[in-house]
Amino acid sequence: MPDFLASIFPGMNAFQLVVVVISALLVGVNKSGIPGLGMLPVILLAVAFERAPGFATGVMLLMICAGDIFAVSYYRKNADWKIVLRLLPYTVLGLALGFVTLRFLNRPEHLRIMIGWIILLLAAVHLVRIAFFKHADVPSHWAFSAVVGLTAGFTTQVANAAGPVMALYLLSMKLPKDRYVGTCAWFFMIMNWTKLPVFCFEGRVTLSALRTVLPVLPLILLGAVLGVLFVKRAPQKFFETVVEIIVIASAVKLLWPSSSSVNTAEPEPGSVQETAPAAPSSLPGPEPGSVQETAPDAPSPPDPEPVAG
Asked: How far apart are CA 187 and CA 72, in angstroms?
C-alpha cells in the first residue's frame, strides 16, 4: 500500500482499505436509495476486521450516522412523521432491551440466528400478503406498532439488523418511493444517533474508528448521490422487488455463524498495543542489607612439569 495511504489509514492492509472504501459507498447508497442494503457493508467490515469486531461495528455506526445526515438533508420533507413518532418510543425500549441482553448473554450469535429466522418469517408473511391479500389493510393498532418498534430497536442493538425489519414494515404501508426513503432516513437518523453514546460507552466507537471514517466521508456523499439517482429512475415495482431481495439475503446471512465470535481480539488499526511487563524471576534475590556469599574460586591447576630435554 502506498505510504501516503498508510499514513491516513495506519495499521490497515490493502484488503481492509478496499473494504472500507466499498462500505462507505454502499452506506451512502443505502441511506438515500436502497433501504436494506446496509447489511452488506456490515458483513464486509466484519470479515475484514474479524479479529477486532468492536472496531468494525464502531466504524459502521459512524459511517451510517454520516449517511443519515446526507439522506435527511435531501429527503427532509418526505418523511411520514405519523409512522416515525408511532414507532420511536417502542424502538428506544428495544434498544435498552438489546443493551441489557448483550450484557448478560454469553453467546450473542444465537440471537443473530434467531433474528434471521424472524426476518425470514416476516418476509414470508409479507410475500403471502402481496400474493393473496394485496388489498388488505395493515393493522393500525398500537400493539402492532409496539411489536415493530421493539423488534427494530432490539435487532439494531444486537445484530445491526433493523434495516430488514423496517423495510418490510414500510413496504406493507405501500408508501411511494420518496416517502419510503424519507421515512427511513429520519427514523434511522434518530435511532442511530441515540445508539452513538451507548457504543462509545461500550468502547466500540473510538478515536481509531473516527480516524478511519473521516477520510471516506466524500465517498459516503457520492454513494448518497447515486442512491438518489436510483430512486428517481427506478420504477416503483422494481424498487420494491430490490428491497425484498435484499431483505431475504440479509436474513440468510444472519443464519451463518459469525467467525468473529471464535477469534481472539486484536488491537484496532492505528492503535498502540501495550507490551506486558516482564514476569518477575521465580528465584528470590538477596534480601536488602544481606551479604551475598560468593562461591570459592576453583583451585588453579598445577604448573606443568618441565619437559626433559
From this structure: 10
- Answer whether 0.90 is exceeded by the pTM: no
List the domain range (segments joined by +) for residue 248: 3-261
d(CA 116, CA 156): 12
> Does 87 reside within a domain?
yes
In a domain, 278, yes or no: no
Q: Is 93 exposed, middle or buried (0-12, 13-18, 19+ CB in 10 A)?
A: middle
Three-class secondary structure of residue 244 per DSSP: helix
Residues 197-238 have pLDDT tens digits of 988 988 889 999 999 999 999 999 999 999 999 988 888 778
Enclosing H/E stretch for 102: helix 81-104
Q: Could you tell me the CA-to-CA distances from 297 to 127, 286, 294, 301, 304 in Å, in that order?
A: 93, 21, 9, 12, 20
Q: What is the pLDDT of residues 137-177, one digit of tens each?
A: 666 667 888 988 998 888 888 767 787 788 878 877 888 88
On whether residue 137 sits in a domain, the answer given is yes
pLDDT at 107 over 70: no
Give φ, ψ of 52 to 5 degrees.
Answer: -135, 65
Q: Got the DSSP string for 138-181?
A: PP-SHHHHHHHHHHHHHHHHHHS-HHHHHHHHHHHTT--HHHHH
Q: Is residue 285 part of a domain?
A: no
Do residues 21 and 54 touch, judged by C-beta distance below 8 A?
A: no
Domain count along the chain: 1
